[in-house]
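[audit] Reproducing an earlier prediction to check determinism. Same input, same settings, fresh worker. If the tokens differ from the archived copy the diff job will pick it up downstream; this log only records the rerun itself.
[audit] input (369 residues):
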Amino acid sequence: MQFATKKVMKGLFAAGLATGASCATAQTDSVTVYGFLKADVESVWASGPKGGVGTAERVSNDLSVLGFKSVENLGGGMQAFAQIESNVYVDTGVGSLADRNDNVGLRGSFGEIFAGQYELPFRYVSVYEIDPFTAGIFASNSIMGNGFAVGANAQTPASFDRRQKNLLQYSIPAFHGINASIAFAAREEQTATTNPGLVSSIITYRSGPLYLAYGYEVHKDYFIAGSKDTGNRIGIAYSIGNTRVRFAWERLRYEPTATTSLSRDAWQLALTQDIGQGQLRFSYVRAKEAEGNATAGIGGIGIPGTPSGARQVTLGYGYNLSKRTELWGAFTKLNNEKTATYNLSANAVPGLSAGQSPGGFGIGVTHKF
């Protein structure tokens, strides 16, 4: 649940920011504070070649968030808006300001445009609508997208599940359930030999219980000058009574050198079943073996022509203690083939080797505000 704090924020600005220097601030129509704290007590392990990795017990933060949103009506149907969002490491008490989704922009009859650091449109095809676990070691982006990354162009080049720096994004006005967005990463990393760039896009359709989405993303010069890496992803979800069926598919293709390529398909099938105040959750993710003539793997993807596939099964249950607080538990097991190195998302098992298969179990609580 979000709550407006316009008067409180005005007071804070007046008392805390006006410290001897004259400054003018626009009068906003609303400032909203939002977020959630999510943590669990979990046990993780990995089995496979070389004896695997021993069991470890830990308290883990599951991407807890603190954010602020501001909206100002400019007249004529136009609004200015801004967002500052930060990670909150509830397990250790540390965190940085504005290290998540941050932007400033305008919206109106023309649509919406903003600049900032933000999750890319391609990511939104499936992460929130298809995956019932979304974040932490139970999430599908252990495999889907080939790992989550935050960075500028050409940083962590394997990842198609990104929060991108130096971003400019435009979204069309909604039209009969259709929405679309396209984002460009400014090419600020140019060198004498490369000029890395990124374009990410999504189109969605919603009608009652139906959700359809397609995303396309291209990375240029992420590995070498002239390289072009692409991602295609679809998402489908449909509700039948209290059951929601969810499916996603993606194809990632890389050009790690001038003469080699690697491609890999993956898909996810997920189900949720609402039962009273609770919800049962299931996810199955399958990564196919890599194809191409590359001589090395990329990210968690193994070497083409070798056993490089993987699968992940996750089961969970959440019980709503209130509209804002959920008690939950989940189990996940990821099985890597010989050359694959997919690891648990967000809170990886350290020291994982190719072919080793991580797993984990956790009991946690989520509190939203």
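[audit] rerun output stored. Observation attached for the diff report: The chain has a mean pLDDT of 92.
[audit] end
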